[in-house]
């Protein structure tokens, strides 16, 4: 195996540091001891507001999602048998529950609901989801307040599972089976899908992409918890009322994390307000590298996310 040759007086050029987004970081400064102290004080300040869930409650959510995931797999096997698929396909047909929104981002608060997506293979129809799966949920003793909103812009089944409210969307992929390690960020999955499935997939795809684009997920999560609490206390956290919603705030915090990749939460909170108090919306629109979505801070007060057609990519 050949080894790199270094001539006298020469040095190997180190690889350029990775940067996130369309521009280089504003600062690569590492946190100081005072930043760490302030971050710990930030955590203690947030605790009384219920932004952190107890470990016991978190484990309860995980258990509920496992039960729901098992129900989905069981239901898809039943559908597969009713449609006379080969036994080899039925045994490996899969099916899976994905999460998105605040729970997937890791910033949900006590008592918050869970946004979920049921992903099924190509032989399972949307009509099956709103009939046989709905009926299966209705028979489950832990499911209460079950209702289907089939005609919504993004069709959904709403329910309360053992005291936790869950909204379940549905997407049928053009796959014979659904593997456990399926990555919904794969653009090829969008081929030949109807618009309702694309809309249903977008929540998971955006959430996963945000987590993929931040330098440090833990710093991002703590910063986002603080910013969301601030927005709610100032009554400007509401997509319905024309303010920013959860995904929009997450994008703004993610961009701050990109600009200060080595900073920790206490610094990122301060930099968040510095960056966006001076942001020139008219000349410097903020765009995020998310397939199917474009984020423009200039028009975000009405609708921060505008759905694009399939195959269009936003450069970040």
Structure at a glance:
The protein is of the alpha+beta class.
Written as H for each helix and E for each strand, in order along the chain, the element string is HHHEHEHEEEHHHHEE
Biggest sheet, spatial arrangement of strands: 1-2-5-4-3
What's the shape?
elongated
CATH H-level superfamily title of the largest domain: Beta Polymerase, domain 2
Can you tell me the CATH topology of the largest domain?
Answer: Beta Polymerase, domain 2
Mean of pLDDT: 85
Which runs of at least 5 residues are low in confidence (pLDDT < 50)? 1-10, 288-316
GO molecular function, one term: poly(A) RNA polymerase activity
Family: Belongs to the poly(A) polymerase family.
Binding site for Mg(2+) 1: 113, 115
Domain Poly(A) polymerase central: 219-281
What are the salient characteristics of this protein?
two-stranded antiparallel sheet, Beta Polymerase, domain 2, five-stranded mixed β-sheet, alpha+beta, Poly(a)-polymerase, middle domain, 9 helices, disordered C terminus, 316 residues
């Amino acid at each position: 195996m050949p080894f790199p040759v270094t001539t006298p007086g020469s040095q190997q050029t180190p690889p350029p540091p990775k940067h996130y987004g369309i521009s280089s970081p504003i600062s690569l400064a590492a946190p100081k001891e005072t930043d760490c102290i302030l971050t710990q004080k930030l955590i203690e300040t947030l605790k009384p507001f219920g932004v952190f869930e107890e470990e016991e409650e978190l484990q309860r959510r995980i258990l509920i999602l496992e039960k729901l995931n098992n129900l989905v797999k069981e239901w898809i096997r039943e559908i597969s048998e009713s449609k006379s698929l080969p036994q080899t396909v039925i045994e490996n047909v899969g099916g899976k529950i994905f999460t998105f929104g605040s729970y997937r981002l890791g910033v949900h608060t006590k008592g918050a609901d869970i946004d979920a997506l049921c992903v099924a293979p190509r032989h399972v129809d949307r009509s099956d989801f709103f009939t046989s799966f709905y009926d299966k949920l209705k028979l489950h003793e832990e499911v209460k307040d079950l209702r289907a909103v089939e005609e919504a812009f993004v069709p959904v089944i709403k329910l309360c599972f053992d005291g936790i409210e869950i909204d379940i969307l549905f997407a049928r992929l053009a796959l014979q089976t659904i593997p456990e390690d399926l990555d919904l960020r794969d653009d090829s999955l969008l081929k030949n899908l109807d618009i309702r499935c694309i809309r249903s997939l977008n929540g998971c795809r955006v959430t996963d992409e945000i987590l993929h684009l931040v330098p440090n997920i833990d710093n991002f999560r703590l910063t986002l918890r603080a910013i969301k609490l601030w927005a709610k206390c100032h009554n400007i956290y509401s997509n319905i009322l024309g303010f920013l919603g959860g995904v929009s705030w997450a994008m703004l915090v993610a961009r701050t994390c990109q600009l200060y990749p080595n900073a920790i939460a206490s610094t990122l909170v301060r930099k968040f307000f510095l960056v966006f108090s001076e942001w020139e919306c008219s000349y410097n629109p903020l765009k995020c590298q998310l397939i199917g979505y474009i984020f423009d801070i200039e028009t975000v007060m009405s609708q921060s996310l505008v759905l694009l057609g399939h195959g269009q990519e936003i450069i970040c």
